[in-house]
Amino acid sequence: MFSFTSGWWTLLRAARPARSFSGRTIAVGAIADIKLKRRELVLTFDDGPMPQLTEDILKALDDAGVKATFMMIGAQASAHPALVRAVAEKGHTIGSHTQHHVNLRAVDPISAKAEIDKGRDSVATSLEPTRYRAAPLFRFPYLADTALLRAQLAKGDIVVLDVDISIGDENDLSPHQLYRQAMRRILRRGSGVVLMHDIHARTVAMLPKLLADLRARGFTIAHLVPAAALLAPMSAMSS
Question: What is the CATH number of the domain that holds 86?
Fold first, then answer.
C-alpha cells in the first residue's frame, strides 16, 4: 500500500486545533443550492462502481467520517449492483453519469437523451428492491454539456452537478504526484465540488493522506442530498 512517511513527502500541516471534518448536509433541488463556504468541499467520484477500488474508497471515507457523491455509469451499476447498494448503505449519495460514458456533444440529441435516461434507469434498478433511491443528480461525461440537454434535464427536475476542482486522476500519475497535484488545486481554489474517480488505484492510494491533510488544514466536507430526501426519513441519507 502506498504511503507518505517522511521527508518532503510530508505536507506541512497548519498549526490549528482539529475540528470536525464532516460538515453540513446540503439539500439540493437546484444547482444554485450548492453555495459553499470557504474551505468547504464536496467530494464526488465518477465512472464507478468498480470492484475492490470502490470498496477501498468507501473505507477511506468511513475512516475519515465523511460522505461523498458517486456519479455512476449505468453499465457499471448493472454489472455490480451489490456494490451500488453498498455505497448507498454507507450513507453516500448516488447520481448518474450516462449508460456508457458517451460524449453527449458528439451524438444527436435523441441518442444523448436515451443515454442519460438509460443510465438513470440502470442505477435505479441496481438499488431495487432496497429502500435506497438514486438522487436526481447528473454529470456530463467529459463535462461535455449542451444547452439543449441542460434545459431538458432541468425540465425533468434533474440537477446537473458541475465541477469546480478536478484533481486530474484520469492522467497517468504516481499516487504521490496525484496527491501533490490534488492538494495544490484544492488550496488554490479554496472550496468547491471536487472531481475524482473510483476506478483508479492511484486515487485509492493517495486518498487517505489527502483527506487527513485537508482536515488538518481546516477544510470540511459537505454532503449533498436531494431536497426531497430531508422530507423522507427512510431515504434522507441514502437517496
Answer: 3.20.20.370
Residue 68's domain spans which residues? 21-231
- Burial 210-235, CB ≥16 within 10 A → b, else e: bbbbbbbbebbbbbbbbbbbeeeeeb
Global confidence as pTM:
0.88
Residue 112 lies in a domain: yes
Question: Which pLDDT tens digits describe the chain residue by residue (239 residues)?
Answer: 333 333 322 333 333 444 589 999 999 999 899 999 999 999 999 999 999 999 999 999 999 999 999 999 999 999 999 999 999 999 999 999 999 999 999 999 999 999 999 999 999 999 998 999 999 999 999 999 999 999 999 999 999 999 999 999 999 999 999 999 999 999 999 999 999 999 999 999 999 999 999 999 999 999 999 987 544 433 333 33
CA angle, residues 122, 92, 162, in degrees to nearest 5: 75
- How many CB atoms are closer than 10 A to CB 47? 21
Domain assignment present for residue 13? The answer is no
CB 173 within 8 A of CB 181: yes
How big is the CA angle at 50 (ends 44 and 54), to the nearest 5 degrees?
50
Best CA proximity match to 98, nearest among 126, 122, 79: 122
Q: Is 151 helix (H, G, I), strand (E, B) or coil?
A: helix
Provide DSSP, 103-140: -GGGS-HHHHHHHHHHHHHHHHHHTTTSS----SEE--
Establish if 207 belongs to a structural domain.
yes
For the chain, how many structural domains are there in total? 1
β-partners of residue 221 are 22, 41
4 in a domain, yes or no? no
